[in-house]
Amino acid sequence: MKYALIGCGRVSPNHITAALQNRLEIVALCDLLPEAIADLKQQFPELRTTKEYTDHREMLRAEKPELVAIATVSGTHAALAVDCIRAGCNVIIEKPIALSLADADLILAEAEKAGVKVCANHQNRFNPSVQAIRCAVEQGRFGKMYHATAQTRWNRPKAYYDQASWRGTWAQDGGCLMNQCIHNIDLLNWMLGGSPVSVTAVTDNLAHAYIEGEDLGLAIIRYANGAFGTVEGTVNTFGGNLEQMLCLFGETGSVEAGGTLNDVIRVWRFADAGPEEEAAMKQRFSTAAEHIYGCGHTPLYADMIEAVEQDRAPYVDGRAGRSALELVLAIYRASMTHAPVSLPLEAASTLDCMGLFCREPEE
Ligand SMILES: NC(=O)c1ccc[n+]([C@@H]2O[C@H](COP(=O)([O-])OP(=O)(O)OC[C@H]3O[C@@H](n4cnc5c(N)ncnc54)[C@H](O)[C@@H]3O)[C@@H](O)[C@H]2O)c1
């Protein structure tokens, strides 16, 4: 399958590794900055002769890839995805798939019209511990689900934001919920059935005066099935990244998963199993991933390739990406209006938050 990557920045090695491990034919690399392409090529000798483009439209015309991954600045995802889709390409879009519901809807509508697949790059859904938890949910082992929590306790210093001017801006990124925490928010939403009906939330910018977005978000979400979810997301933790936790509590089951990416099982208790199962799960999932990007890109690519070949929906489709986006936008709106917000939202964008944390300069 002919494959091209648009966006050759920090996350791009994960995409190339996934493409190579899935034996895709990598026909082109595209980035506005030739030096970003050169840097990526340096890391992968396999890319030595791969064609380079600074204009994605030219790349699409010349190479006609069947699958394109979009790993550019978040605010550019939608326009690039629509161009790829209109050129007949299937697309993997990095999270968040867009920064407004209108843009996400346009992506979905264009893909439907063109008959191509859209995959939202929420790769953590493929992590083995997350798959095990999801399996327990699908088997109904929690009974009636009461509540679940998603904590992302990370640190992003000024040097991170200084790497690129788009980071932390409302027009191109959003704050820590939209960028760093959306993975865990997606997992919470997915585990709780994906139909949030209302959100109460606060967000603030406590330690990053040089970015527009929030560096802390706290939310309570009520779901259509009666369950509740809470989100705690921050990039302020002293001493570096702490952990990402996902905990689920139901009538007949309790699970706590922490570590780097919910990959260390701390509690695994079900009414239909004895302590041996908990001990086995704790032993199987006792090691935290070394890197916060994890290893999910490769299975996500494998699934998308199969989805295209078998003409079925990808495991993490465009609607899943839209749903995570909508939930973050609902949290933003609840924080802005100081009132509960009902879902579904009619329209929303990160641009609605413009000026939210503008403060008078300190004396
Ligand atoms: N799934 C994950 O775990 C994960 C991890 C990191 C980043 N991301 C997401 O991936 C995206 C990229 O993040 P990053 O950290 O690699 O950013 P980055 O700033 O390091 O790289 C982005 C690259 O996109 C290029 N670009 C921008 N507009 C372009 C255009 N129109 N055409 C071609 N190239 C263009 C830039 O020149 C830059 O090289 C973001 O949306 C981010 O949220 C996902």
Plain-language structure description:
- Strand 11 (243-250) and strand 12 (253-258) form a beta hairpin.
- Helix 4 runs parallel beside helix 5 (101-114).
- The chain has 363 residues and is α/β, with parallel strands linked by helices.
- It has helices spanning 12-21, 34-43, 56-63, 77-86, 101-114, 128-138, 158-162, 182-191, 275-284, 297-310, 318-337, and strands at residues 2-6, 25-30, 51-53, 67-70, 90-94, 118-121, 145-153, 196-204, 216-223, 228-234, 243-250, 253-258, 264-270, 341-342.
- The longest helix is centred in the last third of the chain and has 20 residues, at 318-337.
- The chain is built from eleven helices and 14 strands.
- The chain has two domains: 2-123 and 295-317, Rossmann fold (3-Layer(aba) Sandwich); 125-291 and 324-342, Dihydrodipicolinate Reductase, domain 2 (2-Layer Sandwich), CATH 3.30.360.
- The strands form two sheets. It has an eight-stranded mixed beta sheet with strand order 13-12-11-7-10-9-8-14. A six-stranded parallel beta sheet has the order 3-2-1-4-5-6, with helices on both faces.
- Nicotinamide-adenine-dinucleotide is lined by residues 6-11, 30-33, 36, 56, 71-74, 76, 80, 94-95, 121, 123, 164, 179, 293.
Summarize the structure.
This protein has 363 residues and is α/β, with parallel strands linked by helices. It has helices at 12-21, 34-43, 56-63, 77-86, 101-114, 128-138, 158-162, 182-191, 275-284, 297-310, 318-337; strands at 2-6, 25-30, 51-53, 67-70, 90-94, 118-121, 145-153, 196-204, 216-223, 228-234, 243-250, 253-258, 264-270, 341-342. Helix 5 packs antiparallel against helix 11 and helix 8 (182-191) crosses helix 11.
